């Protein structure tokens, strides 16, 4: 079995960063609207953009949590499609990878 402790540390660090960013976005989205109607329009447009960023971040959070779960249950580094090992280089480059490079293409 491979030692993925370095990758785990990177994933856990990234997860913490993402969770903080999502919390900041949620705080911004919960903020009150400006009393000025023209500013409200700008605020609503900004909120739409923030909601899009939030969705992307939440997707990455989900992928990281699944990768950490695969590490815990011993399936990390195994291609979910063909069952072969995912190369170490691929996992270093894309730690959330679930498929080997051949199956991913």
Give a short synopsis of this structure.
With 105 residues, this protein is mainly alpha-helical. The protein has helices at residues 5-30, 37-73, 88-93, 101-104. The chain is built from 4 helices and no strands.
Walk me through this protein's architecture.
- This protein has 105 residues and is an all-alpha fold.
- The model has no long low-confidence stretch (mean pLDDT 88).
- The protein is built from 4 helices and no strands.
- Helix 1 (5-30) packs antiparallel against helix 2.
- 70% of the residues lie in helices and 0% in strands.
- It has a domain at 5-76.
* Percentage of residues in DSSP E strands: under 5%
Q: Please bin the fraction of helical residues.
A: 55-70%
Silhouette: elongated
Supply the helix-strand structural class: mainly alpha
Uncertain parts: none
């Amino acid at each position: 079995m491979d030692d993925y402790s370095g990758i785990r540390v990177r994933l856990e660090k990234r997860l913490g960063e993402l969770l903080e960013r999502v919390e900041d976005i949620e705080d911004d989205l919960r903020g009150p609207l400006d009393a000025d109607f023209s500013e409200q329009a700008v605020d609503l447009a900004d909120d739409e953009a923030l909601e899009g960023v939030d969705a992307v971040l939440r997707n990455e959070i989900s992928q990281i949590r699944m990768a950490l779960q695969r590490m815990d249950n011993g399936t990390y580094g195994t291609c979910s499609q063909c069952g072969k090992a995912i190369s170490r280089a691929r996992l270093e480059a894309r730690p959330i990878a679930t498929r080997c490079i051949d199956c991913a293409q």
